[in-house]
Amino acid sequence: MFIRKVGFFVVEFSIMTDEKEEQKENRIVENLSAVGQIIVGEIEKIGGILTADPITQAEGEYNIGAGSLHQKANKNLTSILCLLQNNSGFKKFIQ
What we know:
Order of helices and strands: EEHHH
Distance between the termini: 15 Å
């Protein structure tokens, strides 16, 4: 909430943002980041195999695993957040 003095009057106003849209965009960005990490990992793994470089291959496998875990964590946190937002008891608690 913002308070602004206009002449002799004090005006209170708030800027409403659509939190659900913002959260949806954040979830999409997180998911794309995880998918990007998986793709890079697959490319590194293939490159390591083609060049017979075990370190590059292992790094690719690591990135694939990390991207997959990132995706799973994002999905689980999103589910928890949706459950909490739909729970009326939680809404009363935070107000």
